[in-house]
């Protein structure tokens, strides 16, 4: 095993294929509140933030608290309607996570979702008790503030250099950098790899299975075992 004893995963766009639902729900909420429906890429650019921060970023001129709350309620209602049929995990996620546990890694989730939303999808996927710790944006500071990672490190009694953050947004990678934690960029989620590269990830993956192969290669190199 590599020196990364703790693997911290973002949820949407990293483990679960839910980016399309988030975009659709933001557009539906905007329409219901008579706000401009924004470009898909602009919406993808806020995925990872807490919902209040995402709304404020997308609509900085929206100072009416009543309208902001109506937007939040419309977003949640539309997302829940879509979630009647749960979104799928990306290919290889369950198998990969199980292998990481068997290899002795601690596993955590750091997400911009609220606690109620994360607990709902974990239950739907049969993963309620799977992770060592999960942290949500409505119970700590929103990404990219490092507090979410710092709380996970404290819970798992792990030093920053022993942890790895895996995420698909600049907020994930910036949060990791602020916490002194290495990161892996996920290129199949909300934001393209070329955007994430600016945040100096250790590695970039375009499918989940690549993470396990890279971790094994890192562990082999650290053990002084070379093939060639």
Helix % is 40-55%
CATH topology of the largest domain: Rossmann fold
Strand neighbour order, sheet with most strands: 3-2-1-4-5-6
Q: Strand tally, please? A: 6
User: How does the major sheet shape up?
Assistant: 6 strands, parallel
Strand and helix order: EHHHHHEHEHEHEHEH
Specify the CATH class of the largest domain: Alpha Beta
* Uncertain segments: 223-228
The assigned structural class equals alpha/beta
Which features characterize this protein?
single chain; 228 residues; alpha/beta; Rossmann fold; DNA polymerase, domain 1; 2 domains; six-stranded parallel beta sheet; 10 helices; 12% strand; globular; disordered C terminus; hydrolase; HAD_sf; HAD-like_hydrolase_sf; HAD superfamily hydrolase
Structural commentary:
- One of its GO terms (molecular function) is phosphoglycolate phosphatase activity.
- Its cofactor is Mg(2+).
- Keywords: Hydrolase, Metal-binding.
- This is HAD superfamily hydrolase.
- One of its GO terms (cellular component) is cytosol.
- With 228 residues, this protein is α/β, with parallel strands linked by helices.
- The chain has two domains: 6-17 and 91-222, Rossmann fold (3-Layer(aba) Sandwich); 19-82, DNA polymerase, domain 1, CATH 1.10.150.
- It has ten helices and six strands.
- It has a six-stranded parallel β-sheet, sandwiched between helices.
- Helix 1 (19-32) crosses helix 4.
- The radius of gyration is 18 Å and the shape is globular.
- 39% of the residues are buried.
């Amino acid at each position: 095993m590599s020196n990364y004893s703790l693997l911290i995963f973002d949820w949407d766009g990293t483990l679960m294929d839910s980016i399309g639902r988030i975009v659709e729900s933001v557009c539906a909420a905007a329409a219901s509140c008579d706000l401009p429906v924004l470009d898909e890429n602009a919406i993808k650019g806020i995925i990872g933030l807490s919902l209040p921060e995402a709304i404020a970023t997308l609509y900085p001129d929206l100072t009416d608290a009543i309208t902001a709350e109506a937007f939040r309620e419309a977003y949640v209602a539309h997302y829940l309607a879509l979630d009647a049929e749960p979104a799928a995990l990306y290919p290889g996620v369950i198998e990969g996570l199980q292998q990481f546990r068997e290899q002795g890694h601690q596993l955590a989730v750091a997400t911009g979702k609220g606690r109620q939303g994360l607990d709902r999808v974990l239950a739907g996927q049969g993963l309620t008790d799977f992770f060592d710790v999960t942290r949500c944006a409505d119970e700590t500071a929103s990404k990219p503030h490092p507090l979410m990672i710092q709380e996970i490190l404290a819970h798992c009694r792990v030093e920053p250099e022993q942890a790895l953050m895996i995420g698909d947004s600049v907020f994930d990678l910036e949060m990791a950098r602020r916490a002194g934690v290495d990161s892996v960029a996920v290129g199949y989620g909300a934001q393209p790899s070329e955007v994430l590269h600016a945040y100096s990830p250790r590695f970039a993956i375009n499918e989940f299975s690549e993470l396990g192969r890279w971790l094994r290669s890192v562990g082999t190199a650290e053990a002084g075992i070379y093939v060639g």
